[in-house]
Amino acid sequence: MIGVVGAGPAGTHYASLIKDEDVTIFEKNSKAGYPIQCTGIVTDSIKRVIDIPDELVVATIKKFRIVAPNGKSVDIDLDKENKVMDRARFDQYLAQKAEDNGAKILLNHTFQGFKKNGDSFKIITDKGSFESRMLVGADGPLSPVAKAAGMFGERQFLQGLQVRAHYKGEPGITEIHMGLGEFAWVVPEDEHVARIGVIGKNVAGAFKQLVGSHDVIEPQSGLVPLYNPKQVLAKDGAYLIGDAATQVKATTYGGIIYGLLAGSYLAENPDSYAKKFNSKLGRDLWMSLKMREAMNSMTQDQYDELIQIFNQSSSKKILEEHDRDFPTKFIVQLLLKESKLWRLGFSVLKKSMFSKENDDPSQQE
User: How many domains does the chain have?
Assistant: First the structure.
């Protein structure tokens, strides 16, 4: 038996791919998909992993409006539409796919640790113990599996505050507000309801400013891990995927697609999982981290200037045509086109890209 802790997208997707072996998923909550702690936006690149049924899509994003602190903005028309999902139903859809593949999901089972007996695990929960030959931690940013297996490492976290609120927005247009926390958004579900949120450290003030007087329907907040290029992904038969492995891009703090891909790679071959993930996706996550460092170093005035740069047709074209999930495909083009970016803090990227002490995991053995 393979034991998976956590019934989120990474864990259930992994379980849906395992053939010829029993999989048991241990979920501490009473229902998959809850509590909701995610905006639920995915780019077109999710098609690399799965197809999303139309009934799970709440809205389609055709344009991103990036708003500077001075109120000026630039509209980025998306070459490929993004989807806003019903996040709870998405999780439940993946959980059902795992069950259809033969996996057993045990709800209300809280992981408490494990004991090793040779190559096997004795997984300990508050409802009893279970024998397993392999342990997969898909249990979120604070990952008890990572702690128990000695893989937690040095982690940093950010506070993600989000609500669903009554909001008169423009369907199909998502607003990104620069200078509020590290990342702030307004994502309309329709003409009357939007998901409004801010991520960062000590963002209560920025969150209050963004939500304003809008009538809150439902809070949906949670902890978000900062990607760690040195994160250990596998150790002595235990593996980490998704948020438990800090596999979250630091530009927008989205991690759904990376978690799904991690689950796919682990299902293909546990022995090569860590190396494959780092070689294929590590550089994009590392690049997003360096981009975040650059943006965090900018002043309000520099954010205003950044919008002016993005309003130029050559820059807009690059942003419109490339998938933000994989920044290595466009950031070099953007930096070469716009030399002004170097003095807006993006020299952090130059320094990191050419440093001999490179922490890019794709360049490590």
Answer: 2
